[in-house]
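Message: I would value a second opinion on how I read folds in token form. Give me a protein, with the fold worked out from its sequence. Write it directly below this note and I will take it from there.
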Amino acid sequence: MAEGLKALGFSLERQEDRVTVTGQAGQIPKQEADLQLGNAGTVARFLTAALCLNKSGSYTLVGSTQMHTRPMRGLFDALEALGASIEYSGEAHHFPITLKTNGLNSQHLKVDASQSSQILSALLIIAPFAPAGLHIELIGDTVSRPFVEMTLSMMKQFGYARYTTKNNTLYFPPCTEPPYTRTEAYMIEPDATAASYFLTLPRFTQAHLQLNQLCTSKLQGDIAFAKIIDPGQNWISFKENGCQITADPTLQPTGIEANFNAISDTFLTAAASAPLLETKTHIWGIAHTRQQETDRIHAMATELKKLGQTVSTTHDSITITPDRNRLKEYSKEKPVEIETYSDHRIAMSFAILGSYDLHTDGRPWISIKNPECCKKTFPNFFKILKDLHNDR
């Protein structure tokens, strides 16, 4: 995102603990630019929508091979309805594209965000700039709905709260003044999705952890993962200064049965830990994850089967029957190699599983390919995990 903003002519300075961006009140400094999106779906959707604020721009947007397969039709259809023109260099309704922008010229959008909530969030962020106002009507079911609520809450934090809602439509009045007025520093929350790995870790390592500043009053819906894995609050507790996780060796870790539609990024954390639980794990509401960094349901099932686990899937779900004896059998001679599919969440989820001392002698029993894919969202993940092991 930072590189994309700089390529568009924005002033951006990065320091150790902060990024300073000089805004342009909804204006895009450069009329033309070539943008590299990598494999970042958030960047791809948010930046593409923001470009359409320009009344006369031409932009080329290219991503990784994986990005070129990810669902974008709901966004592209909406942007064309607003007045943009999109030329496809490959498959229709997918990146790479050439985007010709013409401002926001429609007053009513019908938006399908059934494949990604980022499609709706991207449009919400630019909606306050519509000169004649904008009505966004939702069609179909929006997945990961807490992220949409987070978007609206952050828009309010940055000074905009003039929209109204009725039934499945959000109404944004005509833009008569700059919608976002906040100029002071904004503190970014701890990442609740990334926290899911460390919320799970003590359950199998008999460790004690504190996650600073992570608490239930935050914006992120993924904080609900804590209640799913510890519904009785037996070993996860939230305090004013953060979250404390204390392992209890007397507790028998039972399987998880839950709808993960609202917090689907964390389903991999739960699924990867399933082999160490006492009963079956059944996770559903995750069909849209088949079109993320990889087909996450298929990838998780494939890698768990490598570990000797019984796994069944539907288009929308995954069920894992644990077998710890087979874990030991399959990793007896050498570590089982886990393919990550260039997906950061697969790498981190299986790293937590591999932190369990399966053979009770400290030897590794899982090998993770391409751990560097974690750089996408958590570049120092393995260093932190190593330091935690060294501190035990």
Q: What stands out?
A: DSSP finds 13 helices and 19 strands in the chain. The chain has a mean pLDDT of 94.
